[in-house]
């Protein structure tokens, strides 16, 4: 079955740069991000992993555990991390899964089906740039897929996590281009009368569009 929003996040065991992991045990009661990379020692991936390492405190503040994946072995990963740290002036601490056999990539449908050149020496497809955000109940809450040629925007991923976490705590949704601290939308299931009891201020733009100050 394909993984969709609201699907249970499949569990797996794998080798990683931080030892063997059971994915669900690794996540525990935290939020999680699983994100894939086509291969080690590639330019776009090197910049991406450096960005994630630089944002480590931001993820920790949100109780998010990060785990990467690349279709190479542990020895390549260990050498690549040295390059990532040097190029980006970071200290990468999160685990990177060694998925040379593509077991996890296949389980999460992260293999490249578009670019026939994105294969290893054995002709096996590499992964595309997939992102899965998983909540503490092990439910998939966000799926993003970029082509191998395009680096991801991890500020956007943080923005979505902020929106999801806020919406889980309060009866709100977030408008386009919303960011932390901006006004939010009263959830459509909440009546205006009830919203006025729940929130400090409710501004009615349209009967179906009511804004309130961010609970952050």
Automatic annotation (TrEMBL):
Keywords: Antioxidant, Oxidoreductase, Peroxidase, Redox-active center. The lineage of its organism: Eukaryota, Fungi, Fungi incertae sedis, Mucoromycota, Mucoromycotina. One of its GO terms (cellular component) is cytosol. One of its GO terms (molecular function) is peroxiredoxin activity. Pfam families: 1-cysPrx_C (PF10417), AhpC-TSA (PF00578). Thiol-specific peroxidase that catalyzes the reduction of hydrogen peroxide and organic hydroperoxides to water and alcohols, respectively. The active site is at residue 45. GO terms for biological process: cell redox homeostasis. It comes from Absidia glauca. Residues 3-166 form the Thioredoxin domain. Belongs to the peroxiredoxin family. Prx6 subfamily. CDD domains: PRX_1cys (cd03016). This is Thioredoxin domain-containing protein.
């Amino acid at each position: 079955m394909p993984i969709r929003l609201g699907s249970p996040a499949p569990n797996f065991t794998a080798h990683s740069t931080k030892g063997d992991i059971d994915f669900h045990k690794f996540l525990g009661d935290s939020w999680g991000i699983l994100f894939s990379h086509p291969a080690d020692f590639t330019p776009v991936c090197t910049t991406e992993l450096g960005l994630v390492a630089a944002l480590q405190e931001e993820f920790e503040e949100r109780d998010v555990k990060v785990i990467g994946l690349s279709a190479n072995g542990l020895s390549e990963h260990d050498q690549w991390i040295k390059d990532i740290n040097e190029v980006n002036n970071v200290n990468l601490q999160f685990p990177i899964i060694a998925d040379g056999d593509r077991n996890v990539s296949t389980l999460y449908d992260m293999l490249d089906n578009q670019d026939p050149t994105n294969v290893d020496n054995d002709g096996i497809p590499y992964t595309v740039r997939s992102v899965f955000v998983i909540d503490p109940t092990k439910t998939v809450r966000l799926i993003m897929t970029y082509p191998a040629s395009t680096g991801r925007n991890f500020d956007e991923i943080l923005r979505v996590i902020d929106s999801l976490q806020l919406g889980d705590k309060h009866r709100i949704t977030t408008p386009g281009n919303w960011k932390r601290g901006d006004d939010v939308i009263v959830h459509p299931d909440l009546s205006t009368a009830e919203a006025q009891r729940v929130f400090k201020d409710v501004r009615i733009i349209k009967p179906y569009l009511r804004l309130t100050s961010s609970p952050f």
